[in-house]
Specification:
single chain; mainly beta; N-terminal domain of TfIIb; five-stranded antiparallel β-sheet; 5 strands; about 25% strand; globular; UPF0434 protein L1I42_00180; Trm112-like
Length: about 60
């Protein structure tokens, strides 16, 4: 999977579709993380997939 850059301005506008809280770019740059929802949303070809079917649950150690 290729690492895609997200425009910082777009990242500021994006919120979790469930909690409406700010999303954070993962260290790998391949996911947007919602700590409040405990979900990670993938970024595919530069497009964040902000739907539950695409999200993965975060593990306890990832929430720290």
């Amino acid at each position: 999977m290729e690492n895609h850059n997200i425009d910082p301005k777009m990242l500021e506008m994006l919120v979790c579709p469930f909690t409406k809280t700010r999303l954070e770019l993962s260290a790998s740059g391949k996911e947007l993380v919602s700590h409040a929802a405990r979900l990670a949303f993938p970024i595919e070809e530069g497009v964040p997939l902000l739907v539950l079917d695409s999200a993965r649950r975060l593990k306890e150690d990832e929430l720290r």
